[in-house]
Amino acid sequence: MNKKTILAVTATLLFSFCNITQAGKLQKKIDWASFLAQHDMYWNQVSCDPEMPQRDFGQRSGYYAGALMGNGLLGVNMYKLRDNVYRLNVGRSDVTEIRQPYGTFNSARLPIGYFTLAPKGNVKKEEMHLSLYDAETTGTFVTDKGELDFRTYVLSTRNVIVFESQCKGEGMDVQWDFVPQKAISPRCIIENDYPLGYVNSRKESNPAPTRQDEGDFHYLIQPLVKDTVFTHIGGAYVVGWHEAKEGTSLRVLATVTKADDVNSALEEARTLLKNEVNVKEKKRTTAHRRWWHNFYQQAAFLSFPDMKYESFYWAQYYKFASTTRPGCPVVDLMGVWPNYDTPWPAIWMNLNIQLTYCWQTKANLGFLAQPLWDGLYTHRDNLTRNVTDIRGQESWTDAMAIPRTCTYDFHAPLDPNGAKWNVYEVGNLAWTLHYYWLQCNAYGDKERMSRELFPMLKAAVNLFFHIMERNDEGKYCLPCTASPEYAVGKPAGKNTNYDLANLRQGLITLLKINSICQLHDPMEAKWKDCLDNLIDFRYSEETGFKVSDELEFLDTSHRHYSHLFMIYPYYMLDWNNPADKKKMELSIDRWQGDQGYSRTGKSAMLSSAGRGDDALDQMEIFMSHFLMPNTLYAESGPVIETPLAAMSSLHEFYMQDWGDRIRVFNGCPKRWADASFAGMRAQGAFLVSATRTGGKTVFVEVESEKGGTCTLQTPIPVKQLQTKKAFSVVDDYTIRFETKAGETIRFTDKEQAMQKPLPLHHDKSEWMPFGEHK
């Protein structure tokens, strides 16, 4: 089925639905198959990786344009290997080196390899279609020998990759095989760097894999070793697959298993595949699709007037659910789609992890962030060891930290000597836990808040207490720590705004949790004293917020907004205060960050000021200059976080919940006359829905899950507000009211016709903007 046919069928289904939906929960009323079909990815050409690697934004083919699939642990990226041959890159997110101590070589994510698919003859026409709703890629390759139709997906309920094909034409056939990639840190490949002690004289860090064929079952066995002489095998992964040919049909079932020894990994692969072979295809497909169909209905619903934003938004839901699930590893920079030549084969904790996990709460998908919170809490002893493993800090057992990079157990000691090179990032853990706070508070989860978040955040703040000093004016000050990425290779100076903001926000949050959960912590007085007497953010009248005492913000193209955390993500200043507004405007306008995540961060800052059109301009730069055809992003290698940070920026257009209130459409661009959302989750355990039509907000609804006070700001003047709910007036556009658990309160504009949230209309010519199109 070509794109024109797909569009025609979808249009009929989708807009017959839109015309009749007027009541009830939007998520329950949507024809999801039809709605998501307009956001599918489509290819009428399939590209391969360039012969000479193109870094960053010049790389827009192959890996960065492939069809992405995954189930939270296993991943596949399908694109072209070379003329007439296609590849299905295979990934498993927990396949790493097992060396000690931690490092981006010793602990690196490892490439696994790829399956090859070669239809017979010379390919004349190629077409692929990735269905977001079904999480399957289908396609057709037409050659001078015939036609190959295929379908492939990563099973949502088990760790199995499925590939099915059908040959048409008397001379048509297809060849299938697996090509292993060298089990070595990708940093060796991209940097041509083979550190002493990591590889042997043959530049190997692990033995070569072996292949074992057992009839129609095939296994590629890769031992993982703890030394370069290969005497201590400490683990293994196995790629297994089963090929079944029947006439012109081919079905391949594949998996990747991992264990502490070769025999266990091999046996797991054997068992999994032999069981899967006996599963009926209808049963397998039904279970796979059911998971995905249910997933979308749990999420907040956002519809945008610009098709590329709406398709991008829903593609991130799909992409993130493909790369993580509860019980799966934390998302590193590649997710389940590894690359063999990236400098980023680990978890980066000074921006990447935070941006990856900054958006799920408002999207009402908090469960997808749970692997991070579970991982940190499970390995909390390692967070302590990151402090106490340093000589002279053995007694600091009340503190926790996390450095710039780590692997899944989070053990990587934070050395204070790193201050000399601007890598003593004391605030990374506090920043990370900020998003756990937002999630707990928005879900009203006091149990996790008090049992898990509170002790970890308390320990993160305790590290500041161990190192901070008091100056002659009685102000608490910080020694030289770090400000990510600004003063590369040299000291950042004392009192970096990055760590002052992380400390201040940590203190504010501890006091809130202590009050909410009635913990009566004995350190409450110390937190209040530190908060009241912490030195002010460092500021220059000429250049705005500084990096530190010593460093003014002079390199305006600096990509990281670590010096602006008091503006975003912490919202510590008040746009209604003239002095604060002046400082923020100068600092934001001077900052000309030169990377994709700089643009998404600046967009969020501008949205908080109500400058929606300026915020959209930043997003336009991100979308047009930095986003890849399959919505991936690159900086020397794949880095998954920036498109996910853009999700948060899009949320800020529609609903903001910082400070003391929920703000509806505060950041919405004026040139977006129509907007619609339902079920966005706000602080205080409120679910918010709203509609904007012709530039006017005509509907707002708040559902209270836990009860309590709600302060709501909308573009509807209070004098025009229509509701059955009693409220008090805060200002001309803001009200405050009490809620009961389970209560839903509706607000409309008495001078406008009411319109509940609906999917916005998009012309068929705009559909399926992602993929590769001639």
Strand content: 15-25%
Question: What is the topology, as strand order, of the major beta sheet?
Answer: 11-12-13-14-9-8-7-6-1-32
Strand tally is: 32
Largest sheet: 10 strands, mixed
Report the end-to-end length measured between terminal Cα atoms: 17 Å
> What does the radius of gyration come to?
27 Å
Number of helices: 18
Which structural class best describes the helix and strand composition? alpha+beta
Instruction: Sum up the overall morphology in one term.
Output: globular
Give the low-confidence spans.
4-24
What do you see in this structure?
- The two termini are 17 Å apart.
- The chain has 18 helices and 32 strands.
- 52% of the residues are buried.
- Helix content is 30%, strand content 24%.
- A ten-stranded mixed beta sheet has the order 11-12-13-14-9-8-7-6-1-32. A six-stranded antiparallel beta sheet has the order 15-24-25-26-31-28, with no helix packed on it.
Which helices and strands, and how do they pair?
Elements: H1 3-20, H2 26-29, H3 32-37, E1 41-43, E2 67-70, E3 74-82, E4 85-92, E5 113-119, E6 123-131, E7 136-143, E8 146-154, E9 161-168, E10 174-180, H4 186-191, E11 210-214, E12 217-225, E13 233-246, E14 249-259, H5 262-277, H6 281-298, E15 301-303, H7 307-323, E16 347-348, H8 352-356, H9 370-378, H10 380-388, E17 405-406, H11 428-443, H12 446-467, E18 469-470, E19 476-477, H13 497-516, H14 524-533, E20 539-540, E21 544-545, H15 578-590, H16 596-608, H17 612-626, H18 641-654, E22 655-656, E23 662-664, E24 675-682, E25 686-693, E26 696-704, E27 708-713, E28 721-722, E29 728-731, E30 734-739, E31 744-749, E32 771-772
Helix pairs in contact: 11-12, 11-13, 12-13, 13-14, 16-17, 16-18
